[in-house]
């Protein structure tokens, strides 16, 4: 049963705390992405990775960090430097990076709330 | 900043009617276009992709692309209450090497 999994479904962050969101895919996709969605807004790209051990900043990378040590995994850390982290976080993957724009498929998302 | 624009809605249509969702994009270098459906509280799911000018049909859905006018649309025939959702339009910008999303159009299909 191929797909993208994200955990946890809900995450609560205390002031000054770093939290890590998990994203795993078993689709054998090369590229993985992290988006943030705020109410009434489109998806904004945080980071993306086209190959293991390499990643690039998106439009709103400040206050976030990522790693890509395995093809299947692309965790996102929301650091204490991110002052407004409350949002719906979506992980996506695509078969090929770049080119004409391969279709991106999304995981179920993690909703992050600040206590 | 390259943009994708959509009317936020809500677009209200009666059950069985045709729903027409529209999208414009600013980057003339965009090469591929996608429509996603997003139910409230859920993640986006792909409905259609389109790469060439003209129409592309898949069941009750038809995507239309006009690159000269920088315009993409999605038609949903025989609309059902289960089609009620937010529809996101996205354009892949080759120059920026990323998918740019519109804010979405909320569709409400009433019985």
Layout of SSEs?
The complex is a heterodimer of chains A (115) and B (111).
Chain A (H helix, E strand, L loop, with lengths): L3 E4 L2 E4 L5 E7 L5 E7 L5 E9 L2 E4 L6 E3 L9 E3 L8 E8 L10 E2 L3 E5 L1
Parallel strand pairs in A: 2-11
Antiparallel strand pairs in A: 1-3, 3-8, 4-5, 4-9, 5-6, 7-8, 9-10, 9-11
Chain B lengths: L3 E2 L5 E4 L4 E7 L4 E9 L6 E6 L3 E5 L2 E6 L4 E6 L8 E9 L4 E4 L3 E6 L1
Task: Describe the structure in your own words.
The complex is a heterodimer of chains A (115) and B (111). With 115 residues, chain A is mainly β. Helix content of chain A is 0%, strand content 49%. Chain A contains no helices and eleven strands. In chain A, the strands form two sheets. In chain A, strands 2, 4, 5, 6, 9, 10 and 11 form a seven-stranded mixed β-sheet that branches. A four-stranded antiparallel β-sheet of chain A has the order 1-3-8-7, with no helix packed on it. In chain A, a hairpin with a 5-residue loop joins strand 4 (31-37) and strand 5 (43-51). The radius of gyration of chain A is 13 Å and the shape is globular. Chain A starts with a strand and ends with a strand. With 111 residues, chain B is mainly β. Helix content of chain B is 0%, strand content 58%. Chain B is built from no helices and eleven strands. Chain B has strands spanning 4-5, 11-14, 19-25, 30-38, 45-50, 54-58, 61-66, 71-76, 85-93, 98-101, 105-110. In chain B, the strands form two sheets. In chain B, strands 2, 4, 5, 9, 10 and 11 form a six-stranded mixed β-sheet that branches. In chain B, strands 1-3-8-7-6 form a five-stranded antiparallel β-sheet, with no helix packed on it. Chain B is globular. The mean pLDDT of chain B is 94. Chains A and B meet through strand 5 and strand 10 of A and strand 4, strand 5 and strand 10 of B.
